[in-house]
What does this fold into?
Amino acid sequence: MTRRSALPGFGPALTITLVWVSLIVLLPLTSLALRPWELGLMGVWHSITEPRVLAALRLSFGAAALAAVVNVPFGLLVAWVMVRYRFPGRRLADSLIDMPLALPTAVAGIALTALFAPKGWIGAWLLPLGIKVAYTPVGIMVALVFVGLPFVVRTLEPVLMDLPLEAEEAAATLGATRSQTLRKVVIPALAPALLAGFAAALARGVGEYGSVIFIAGNMPMLSEIAPLLIVIRLEQLDYAGAAALGLVMLLVSFSILLLLNLLQKRMGVKIR
Amino acid sequence: MSEAFSQGLPVATRERPATRLVLTLFTVVLLVLFLLLPLAVVFTEALSHGLGKIRDSLTDPEAITSIELTLLVAAISVPLNSVCGVAAAWCIGRFQFPGRSLLITLIELPFSVSPVISGLVWVLLFGANGWFGPMLDRAGLRIIFAVPGLVLATVLVTFPFVARTLIPLMQEQGASEEEAAITLGAGLWQMFWRVTLPNIRWGLLYGVLLCNARAMGEFGAVAVVSGHIRGQTMTMPLQVEALFNDYDWVGAFTIAGLLSLLALVTLAVKAALEYRIGERSGALL
It folds into this structure.
């Protein structure tokens, strides 16, 4: 061990940390990586290519991606208003943005269901328009937009605060209109942060469970998310099948995150 | 938070006043609708049959057990994760060693794992068909479908909060005060209690606050390991689910209301602590 510091306590602190990380993170994740293979290679393949599994994976990743796409402009608007404008109640509004993270997911789930049910405050308005949200894939989207918003806003806010104003002033001096400046100067400078926010919201949405299952309706092939299918397989004591699905979810989301991370690096601007 | 803009932005970098007004109003209305309506519906539904029904729901033995269990699980997992979080922040924030960044990645890993997977892994280890399941069975120990499983799942989910808040804080503060204390002859514990802890106390409180909020509100991970035994392994969020599925809306929304109050208190204390620390520490809940 190379220690540069003259401070004491490195050994005990590292020991505690390593023991804790091994017991709480490494050992459990090892079991996730190893358990599927007791089905054999073909068994794992069959287990994760069942039509019901593929439909659930498509739904989880598709809905999470779509919700993250919605959250990018929504989050940009919120972050812009919070950082650039001053208005009464701004601090209060800013701390409210964390509500979806502070509110337990099960509470968010039943609250959104109550709001968007056919007789709910919002659902009753949408029903005459022929829009059904609760118990459909649209409901899954609504829940994922709700839990994903803070990730985009909180990723953008610090970057927006540090954004130098000189470039915007220069553009304005050179005769650009405000919307031209925003399009050609501000948005490109924010692009890596927008991508990072998108990635964070996507990652959260893929694994989200509590806020989704109440509003989803949970029909196999139609509105059944992948985490729910893991729970169902566990209830059937199909441990290996549950582990296989969990492993696939982890690997796919890590690959997507890695790809987005590389893309972000190629944009050339370092965040944080 | 930066106050650079409070004096007003340079004219060239402002939108027109009308645009600003419209954007601000639109955003505030959107936030209120989207973030506060769910909260409003929780309290409205809970109160919809009067206060008497709320009292009945809260004095129900199953509800009381779920509240006690939630407090118990948080009381075990939050201190464990706090001590280990401080230890992790001490070695990562104060020393350079091989594998340091790998360790950071491992500590943050639980944030990018689905809660359901965070529960699943414990079943794979300790469930009836788990690696250690038969062994535990012979010894007469129960982990899955019992309190230890709830604690393990909660610990895994809330593992990163304290370390993640403290590492950037400690790096920013630097080690000079601690080095001075050691040079002047202080021991490890003297330095920790007199210098380190006072310096990091608000950050530590911030991490503990977020850790606790998540520990009490966790649903997915505990749902997998709980087995849903009424009056025994139901934490508050699980009780909310059970009551909701029983069409006992008043009961479900009453417990949900308690959890919402917890969320509101958490947000208020968080805002106060951010004011203390001087800025947002960058840690998401």
About this structure: Chain A has one domain: 39-266.
